[in-house]
């Protein structure tokens, strides 16, 4: 009997972490990155009003944040046309994913996701002892029909679907998801990860009532709103489910300045529109760079572009390694067959110039 | 079979939350508080250097924070004379408490604490299905010997002890805890909550080796460093235990500006010294106000003063209600016999002037 005695579940968990951050990579490499295009951060940054709001809020940083995030919820509820009772705010989508899994998944419970989808979701499922059933994508798209059918087959309590998808950048029309919902089995909750939805074409977000008990949607200020370092995400769902988060969440876990910043960011939809235009231009540039190198950029409804390197995973891993050696922080899909691709976050002109310069050499090295 | 299917544990949990925040109270009351003396926040605020560091970090808020909190850990390890492997940084002590309980406590596992000690710890224990054994204080002090004996009796995996204590403000000399440690049973981890330790007399922190597998200590930037709204806490423990947090924690859960602010706050020990002097002066003023009203202020090693109202819990609750009605945010101990007291956080002259003016009326109303 040693100090301390971990639970059996904890003892069964691997020591590995879902993502190695760029700062950790820089320290391992012993060199900084020249461009940061690997974590789908939004280099165009938050609204100046959000920066001002966060700066102004620092004077009050001696106070805990509002445990109910009242002002932010009010503003979101007006913006989304839902009630505040449909909203829970958390420490980014990652934090909310952990809470949601904890609400539903006990050891042995079945969960369905796509093979190669968001690793941090899988991390939380494993962390609570859930059994993951992973389905292949349908080409470069997640497959809602197959996911929901699998959920029925394995009696899943939770099924994960990202729309748009990360790491492939693909998307479904909202109506496609709405139709597929008919196949979602009783007792299975659809977790719809909409982290990138602001970047997607009109109609990508399905018209699901916020009170629909079959679905919880998650969104964030980390991507389109450019505040990844602030850690503010939110979930939209039926009031009973939303209330359940209060049984377990870290009630005073949110940074007070970040709460103020998210509110101001939401209120500056002009800035958001500018960001979307910049991201769209950046996507075109990345696709252009890919094409000039004889590669195919996949269509993207996100702030990144996934590029098919035209061969197998080993080839793409060599391309990636060379890009990293050339001081570019980039990542690639983990699972076959998508590991034939690399994934480039949208960047400024200067960031993309570095990528433009580095890609030919990376391909040459990978082919050598 | 409804949507969604919660775990049995979640269904068993109450909807109540450990603390109702002051903003929530203000909305319920329909009036703002004139002084905020209820949450042991540090109204003297963070070092100006910390404010500058957070302001400067906002430019980079589009990036996730460093998942390893490398710079902050390096600085803390130098400051505390421990290795970075002895440190984990989290979303305040509250966040770390949740992670620690999850590491150790499965449904039915025994945990020992004092009756009336930190409710958020109890919240997490219940949230993971642990069985709480609550011991009475010894007078106004937690009782390490009794806690550890109880831990042996019930085969506890975890025992909670705060030093200094909240809500009583009392403390033990470090050597007292060190001696009691001999009675800590095998297989039981001591969670030593040192949230207030910077305010305490020299010698209050026991000289326990960071590698000692029997103990984990938790500290925070929320109290003496004046950054409650930033959400940065840390734990000091044996490397194996510290590494275990990486199996479950929200790796990218910390606000990037808060990480920079905590680093700068730590590096400004002159500001900390000024804060401690201000807090000490404020404690004396609160004790003086109590004495002038015929009440006894308990000795405090924290940034609050617990005042014995000289009667029972109902009386103190009436005093508290009147203070709240007079627009003072204050709280009181939850459990008898300590609910004979009210608890006043240290404040500025203006805050204490309001308390000085309100207390006689509150006592008169309570006696009426």
TrEMBL record, chains A, B:
Can you tell which superkingdom this protein's organism belongs to? Bacteria
Pathway assigned to this chain's UniProt record: Amino-acid biosynthesis
Which co-factor is required? pyridoxal 5'-phosphate
Give a GO molecular function annotation for the protein. transaminase activity
Q: Which CDD domains match?
A: AAT_like
**PROSITE patterns named in the record:** AA_TRANSFER_CLASS_2
Which Gene3D superfamilies does UniProt cross-reference here? Aspartate Aminotransferase, domain 1, Type I PLP-dependent aspartate aminotransferase-like (Major domain)
Recite the UniProt keywords alphabetically.
Aminotransferase, Pyridoxal phosphate, Transferase
Stored Pfam families:
Aminotran_1_2 (PF00155)
In this chain the Aminotransferase class I/classII large domain maps to: 37-352
- The answer on whether this UniProt entry bears the keyword Coiled coil reads no
Similarity comment: Belongs to the class-II pyridoxal-phosphate-dependent aminotransferase family. Histidinol-phosphate aminotransferase subfamily.
The UniProt entry, under NCBIfam families, shows:
PRK08153.1
Q: What is this protein called?
A: Pyridoxal phosphate-dependent aminotransferase
List the source organism: Roseovarius pelagicus
